[in-house]
Write a structure and sequence with these properties.
Four Helix Bundle (Hemerythrin (Met), subunit A); elongated
Length: about 150
């Protein structure tokens, strides 16, 4: 009887330790996913802000440097989304990431139109794209990230 009690206690302790490790691993994975989502949102906000700054200011030669910054931020977002896609295993998480990726594509296309119009000197057209297309695409994109 004493031996059975010791065995049950040892098994229970082992099971609890397993649960604690599992919970810790899940918590760490969740925190990393949240941090990546925050970084995606922050980088995207910086891209949108840089596009607005370029449109509002006559940047001339400085535009090339700002364009490099925009491109670097976009590259970082793609890398973060790729890493998130690889890290997630559940169907639900992959579906949500898919929604973010699709919303990002629309945002990237809209911001590309704004940048292209700015580069050709069509400031009024770029401003129109920014106020309509880009703003709407960014709203949908951020809503997908927040899910």
């Amino acid at each position: 009887m004493l031996l059975a009690t010791v065995v049950v206690a040892a098994l229970g302790r082992s099971a609890l330790r397993s649960l604690s490790v599992g919970a810790l691993v899940t918590g760490v994975k969740r925190a990393a996913a949240i941090e990546r989502a925050r970084d995606v949102r922050d980088n995207t906000s910086q891209v949108a802000s840089a596009i607005r700054d370029v449109l509002l200011a006559d940047m001339g030669e400085d535009y090339a440097e700002e364009r490099k910054r925009i491109d670097a931020l976009r590259t970082a977002v793609v890398a973060l989304l790729d890493k998130t896609t690889q890290a997630e295993t559940s169907a639900e998480a992959r579906e949500l990431i898919g929604q973010v990726v699709e919303a990002r594509k629309a945002f990237a296309a809209s911001s590309g139109r704004v940048v292209e119009a700015e580069m050709t000197g069509a400031v009024d057209l770029a401003n129109g794209y920014m106020k309509t297309e880009l703003r709407g695409a960014q709203t949908v994109y951020f809503a997908a990230i927040e899910k």
